[in-house]
Amino acid sequence: MGRLSIRKTLGELALVDCWRTLHPSTKDYTHYSVIHKRYSRIDYVFIKQEGLSRLRTASIEPATWSDHGSVRVELESPLFKPATWTWRLNESLLQDLGVRGEITQALENYFAENGTDEISPVSVWEAHKSVIRGTLIGIASRKRTESTRAMADAYKSITRLESQHKRSQLTSTYGELMEARRTLQTLLTQRHHRSLQRSRSFFYTHANKGGKFLARLLRGDTPRSQVRKLRLSKGSISPYPEEIAEDTAHRRETSSLIQTYLQDNVRKRMNPETADILDEPISTEDLAAALKGTKTGSSYKEQWFQELGVCTSHIGGSESGRSALCCPKRLYTPSPMQPAMMMFSSKYWARRGMSLDSAMCPDFLNNPARDKLNAVKIDENKCSKTEPAAEIEKTAVVLTLKNEVGGLLQTLKIFKEKYVNINHIESRKSKMGNSEVEVYVEFECTKKKHQELIHLLKLQSNTISLNPAERKWHDDEVELDGVPWFPRKIAELDKCSHRVLMYGSELDADHPGFKDNVYRQRRKYFVDVAMGYKYGQAIPKVEYTAEEIKTWGTVFRELAKLYPTHACKEYLKNFPLLSKYCGYREDNVPQLQDVAIFLKERSGFTVRPVAGYLSPRDFLAGLAYRVFHCTQYIRHGSDPLYTPEPDTCHELLGHVPLLADPKFAQFSQEIGLASLGATDEDVQKLATCYFFTIEFGLCKQDGQLRAYGAGLLSSIGELKHALSDKAAVKPFDPETTCMQECLITTFQDLYFVSESFEEAKEKMREFAKSINRPFSVYFNPYTESIEILQNTRSIENVVQDLRSDLNTVCDALAKMNKYLGI
């Protein structure tokens, strides 16, 4: 390649020389040939022009084991500042006595052949470095080949011995098999250690410095040399571990006792006469006087003091009356009621996602007096006979009640009379009959109370079934006060997908299928399929009718004509693959299960059925887990080119091809992650950005506008309109886009263009920083869960995953460098 060709290539790639940029008028050389006695500069370091702003210094370092002086370049980095590269020999080779012997023999032969007067001593000395380097490279390559051959022989021996032992079942054959496995394990361990040495050396050399934040996170808690001192309970300071351990154990044993608390805290602030009163039992009159004197804003009912007097009568006369009354184990504090979804509501209520709370009796719900009563009520049975806290278990029942006024209230009174705490409650229409309602109740009680409660519930309800209660929170989950609920594990998307604002079976009067009873019954079938689906199950296969296949075929045929000239490159790349693996064709409607498998392999996304419209918060939460909610029903056949709502044509033809693209999938997930725990206002802004990008977004490719929004790619009329001269277009900016009005029944007034998915993703990341959220989230792809990042411990877990990925990248780079001879 000539000099002009090299300059042309550098210009096309926008590469510049780091050294010449910082030293435009200085001459320096990186190579000296002893034989030719000539200096030359043949080593260059090129970077992109846009990276010049991060270029700090560039210098030529003296050579140690090479005839070439290395060019040292310092660039600013968000993680760490690159340190000077130190050339290191493979320590495992130097520790091998055989290798050291070979190096010694090679040097002896070299000096014996070249140590003559014809060659200068300087030349001999400079050249012997290459001899050592070449000898080491040859030995390492030979050992690598021997190790690979030994592993291949071990695999063959294991395969042969396994088949032989399967036939003979002899002890000797089994011993040979185990010996072969141990040999293979040793070889794999040695190779693994060598890989770790190569990958760790980069991190330890460049980033593992004392002042680095990343190094502090990755460094474990190492024992320190100094002895920690502790002030003992008696007041003295002790540096002896035995005394510290003994005092700590004593504190743990006595800290939970009420006497210790009174002795260490209360009695110190009281005079002796007042302190003696603490030893006397608390009477009912004392409690009543204390409660009446408190300023709570509202007084307790008189009946409450009568019930409290009955409870305290069992306690006041005992020797440990004060302790029994003050012991937390004897106080029964119920958890707050969780809002339930009204699944049997009318269309008006379902659209607004109203809670079941509005159907409850005011005496049972939102009653301050009742809440205060339950907060300190002491069960009579517990006063007479203490039951361990471990016996209280969480369980659930499904009741079938008559759909009549007051039916639910009578059932809830049973729980109230038995002082049983209800944690969660839901209701829906019964599948057995229209005149009945199924109620799911989750509660906590003892085994004895559970039997009594079930007996009373059987008298009140038609049928009853027992179910194990699902835990709503896990021990390792962080409680977030004042933050809207969001799913922390992928299985919790079942709750989101069932909170449908408007079911697919509920059609408006202007819907083409509003008067078609057959079509409405068909839509109810798809609703039942979606509502019955749970995470982990295979999506049920749907047998589409001839009319539905005909409608799908019409939409498929007309849109396929426009895709080559209107769709983006990513869409055109994946559409043929969907035809090959998922059955995308004119005479067949693809199954969601096949689509889910295909997307999982391509981009990590998956789909799940949904009954109808979801709230923006619930829908975006699914994107955070790379889960897309898809409808399965087909639009009405009377007008196949129009639909007032998303159907499976929109989902499968508009969304799925682009969800198979990894960059687009990452962009979609970024929007979903930004919505978790955000306020309603911020969620609405994110939903608007989603609407004008993933639904109606445009991009530039090869100087022309192309569509990537699913709403455009599934609508023939709007797809033509968006790429015509009549459409108004602006560059995508989340700050501006989130204020634009979303139109449902007409074409959009304005469309937004992105240069690429990467640009849109970076803009959304910057926009997400403006969201008022006191924490960050991280999607763990291994557990398919969301981790809350709000302290150094949670960040350390993420950094551990990044460290593993960094080791893998370093190992790959090391192998490439070895292959290229660098």
List the helices and strands and how they pair.
Layout lengths: L2 H10 L2 E3 H5 L8 E3 L4 E3 L5 E3 L6 E6 L10 E5 L15 H4 L2 H18 L6 H48 L2 H36 L6 H6 L11 E2 L5 E2 L2 H14 L3 H9 L5 H6 L6 H10 L8 H15 L4 H6 L20 H6 L15 H9 L3 H5 L8 E10 L4 H11 L3 E9 L6 E10 L1 H14 L2 E5 L25 H6 L1 E4 L13 H15 L14 H21 L2 H13 L10 H11 L3 E4 L2 E3 L1 H9 L2 E4 L17 H12 L2 H14 L4 H16 L2 E4 L2 E4 L2 H4 L2 H7 L6 E3 L2 H4 L13 E4 L2 H12 L7 E5 L4 E5 L2 H29 L2
Parallel strand pairs: 14-16, 17-20, 19-20
Antiparallel strand pairs: 1-4, 2-3, 5-6, 7-8, 9-11, 9-12, 10-11, 13-15, 17-18, 21-22
Q: Outline of this structure?
A:
This protein is about 50% helix and about 10% strand. The chain has about 800 residues and is α+β, with helices and mostly antiparallel strands. The protein has five domains: about 5-75, no CATH class; about 90-215; about 260-325, no CATH class; about 345-370 and about 385-465, ACT domain (Alpha-Beta Plaits, 2-Layer Sandwich); about 490-790, Orthogonal Bundle (Phenylalanine Hydroxylase).
Q: What's the CATH H-level homologous superfamily of the largest domain?
A: Aromatic amino acid hydroxylase
Low-confidence stretches: 222-227, 296-305, 311-390, 469-476
Distance between the termini: 21 Å
- Mean pLDDT across residues: 75
Q: Total domains, how many?
A: 5
CATH A-level architecture of the largest domain: Orthogonal Bundle
Shape descriptor reads: extended
Largest sheet: 4 strands, antiparallel
Total number of helical segments? 32
CATH class of the largest domain: Mainly Alpha
Q: Level of helix content?
A: 40-55%
Question: How big a fraction of the residues is strand?
Answer: 5-15%
Number of strand segments: 22
Radius of gyration: 37 Å
CATH topology of the largest domain: Phenylalanine Hydroxylase
- The order of strands across the largest sheet is 10-11-9-12
- What structural class do helix, strand and pairing data support? alpha+beta
